[in-house]
Amino acid sequence: MGHTFDCVIIDYGHGGLTLDGHSVHPGHKEYTFGQVDQDGHPLPETLRGLTVREGVINRMIAWCLMKLLTDRGVVVHDAVAGRHDWKPETSSRHAHQPWRDLEVANIPLGDRISFANGYDNGLLISVHSNAMGTAANPGPGQDVVRGAAVFTSPGQTKADPVATSIWDALSSIVGGLGTRMLTPETTDGDPDYERAFAVLTKTDCAAVLIEGLFFDNIDDAMVLLSGGGRTTLANAYMRGIMAHVEPRRVVQRFGGTTYKPGVLLDDLTVGEVHPAIAERLDRFRYHHLPPHLQAVSKPFSDLAHALALGDNHPKAGNVTTGQGPLEGPALTEALTLLWQAKNAAVYTMVGRG
Ligand SMILES: [Zn+2]
């Protein structure tokens, strides 16, 4: 096996949605289906006028990929938000669309590349979907323009084995998603495409760009617009990446669950709490917030820690329940709802300071 990376930097292309659900770049990288599909066949009434936005699809798939990787202990950084050590925290506002918590702006490529270049041994994954406007020819062995393709910079680099693994994972999807390279492009003997995209050549770290299907092909669009389709793609990306990254050291096993220090409170000792409780407690972190938001967050954090770890825990503040650590499903529920209440309270404070 080739090189092992110690973190993954995710770059999701183009813009997302504003808070009220509008595209931040109306008309940019989007496609609206008309009366017929790419082959000239009439589209069903319900699909005519359907608009697919690449930036939105990219965020949906990227969030899923980031979650899958962090669940496996991989250190993930968000190149678009400029966020180090990303964690899948979800605001109550976007509880059912967690991907909307990602950065919505189309951050300039130079900024995303500089962020990635902060990681010598990082692996940059740029998540995109393709459009026929830029690649109108069917891939080798194909009779229609569709499918996924994986790109690296020209020549053999540390990124090529990763691209091959992602390619293999995509190719092994049961039922097939119409992977685009049916015969390897022969430039370097790998199945990936070789392109001098800036995101691939201006990055010091290894970089792979994935074009996950064509959003203006109706068959591919149906996959991209379904949760199952996006999860399938993200899973394939994850499987390809996992063969080349070193997850955080595993420090604890609890009830058969492998638990990673990334979601473990730093001062919890091994086996102190159930991983589900530790994960919830971790969401109450407030030291990164500005003082006026810390002031609102801390009481929630204190109460959460007192409930789960007992009054005498250093993170329980001055809370006095008169109880030791509690446990069970009701505690899990209480921490979940308390966290949502904390988020709502913090939102009321945003912009005040
Ligand atoms: Zn794109």
Index terms:
single chain, Aminopeptidase, 10 strands, 13% strand, globular, binds zinc ion
Brief overview, please?
By secondary structure, the protein is of the alpha/beta class. Helices cover 32% and strands 13% of the residues. The strands form three sheets. Strands 4-1-5-8-6-7 form a six-stranded mixed sheet.
Work out the count of structural domains. Answer: 2
Secondary structure tally, helices = 9
Second-tier CATH architecture of the largest domain: 3-Layer(aba) Sandwich
Strand coverage percent: 5-15%
Adjacency order of strands in the biggest sheet? 4-1-5-8-6-7
Bound molecules: zinc ion
The CATH superfamily of the largest domain appears as: Zn-dependent exopeptidases
Using the coordinates shown, work out and report the CATH topology of the largest domain: Aminopeptidase
The description of the largest β-sheet is: 6 strands, mixed
Mean of pLDDT? 83
Estimate the helix proportion, in percent: 25-40%
Q: What does the overall shape look like?
A: globular
DSSP, total strands: 10
Cα radius of gyration in angstroms: 22 Å
Q: What is the CA-CA span between the terminal residues?
A: 52 Å
- What's the CATH first level of the largest domain? Alpha Beta
